[in-house]
Amino acid sequence: MNEEQNSLEDETAEPSFTIHDIIWASRYYLGHELKDANISPDLLADCETPQDLRDRFYGEALRRRWPITAPMAAKFTMYRPGAKRILVLGNCQGPNLARALSATTDASVFGVEVMLYPQDPDYFEEAIDGADLIVAPRLGEDWGSIGTQALLARRPNDVVTYSLLYFDGLHPDMTYWGLRQDRVQSPFGDYHSKIILRSFFKGYSVERCLQEFNEDVFGELGFWDQAEKSLAEMRAREVDTDIRCADFLESAMLREPCFHTMNHPRQTMFTQLAFAVCEHFGLKTFGTPLFGYNALSGDVIWPVYREIAERHRCAFMDDQRYWRASHVMTREEFVWRCYKIYGAADRDVFWDMAPANHQATLKI
């Protein structure tokens, strides 16, 4: 083959990146996706490698055409040119697990909340097609193309499954009140205290409610046994998943707080999940990150009550404060605020908003 033929082949060769590289790169560099219709030939001119693509996204011409925007809280993207692309699906845990993965292994990672799926199933089709590997929670057939069986049928060798993390063993006082579409709000949104609800429905004063936070009431409401029960429930949910965390949690929860709330894990749990994903797929890891951003740390942080930490012989004791973003409440203030909200509602209607199994946990 002569030099002229070689030159001709070089000029007509396809670039070493795909449309998925462009979309993932736009998520990372611009904060939003470029759709097919927005990707013009001049955008790709002289781009032959993923590294060239990165240079193009940093160029002034492209930035003038598509300004940088803040990414949605329900998404997280890390784009690394030429690296494997990992899609992480989940609830609010999904983008945070994606963050942990991006700090654990040298990959491009896109995490997105599955609650966006009903609004735009086609969006998830591109995400699935563009991923080399997929990390997904166990979901039923009603979730369509992101349901577990649909994903496994489509990409049998590229999917690792996990169970969405839920553990109320050290937060047994936490509960929801009402069904998802009609939940009553407390000062902490969907989260309520069983003891405060119970005291309110019994007609106790704020002062009497505060006195109810004691070992006798904890025992009556079953708080002492909840860690064992919640771990058993986690193991049951993990029976048919590739990644399992219950054994790790059983020991880790005694060393340090592992959850901010019953369904908001701390970074310890996300890091553990990330390493398990890397081990499953055979991905090299950087080593344990010393720091990691967890967006859930900026939401509700419920204390591990002193009596519960002592009963389980935990090696830590937190500040016994209730946090939401930058706002912090003492127990007295939290109870007072709850009573103000609850007192504004019709008591009977308020009671009937919760299903019978939630009402039963108050043992009234």
Gist of the model:
The chain has 364 residues and is an alpha/beta fold. The chain is built from 18 helices and 12 strands. A hairpin with a 2-residue loop joins strand 11 (322-324) and strand 12.
Could you describe the 3D structure shown?
The chain is an alpha/beta fold. Helix content is 42%, strand content 12%. Strands 1-3-2-4-5 form a five-stranded mixed beta sheet, with helices on both faces. It has a three-stranded antiparallel beta sheet with strand order 10-11-12. It has a two-stranded antiparallel sheet with strand order 6-7. Strand 11 and strand 12 form a beta hairpin.
Characteristic key phrases:
elongated, 5-stranded mixed sheet, 3-stranded antiparallel sheet, 364 residues, disordered N terminus, alpha/beta
Helical segment count: 18
> How many runs of DSSP E, i.e. beta strands?
12
Structural class: alpha/beta
**Order of strands in the sheet with most strands:** 1-3-2-4-5
Percentage of helical residues? 40-55%
- Would you list the SSEs in sequence order as H and E? HHHHHEEHEHEHEEEHHHHHEEHEHEEHHH
Report the uncertain regions.
Answer: 1-13
Share of residues in strands:
5-15%
Alpha carbon gap, first and last residue: 88 Å
> Roughly how many Å is the radius of gyration?
25 Å
Q: Determine the mean pLDDT.
A: 90
Shape: elongated
Biggest β-sheet, characterized?
A: 5 strands, mixed
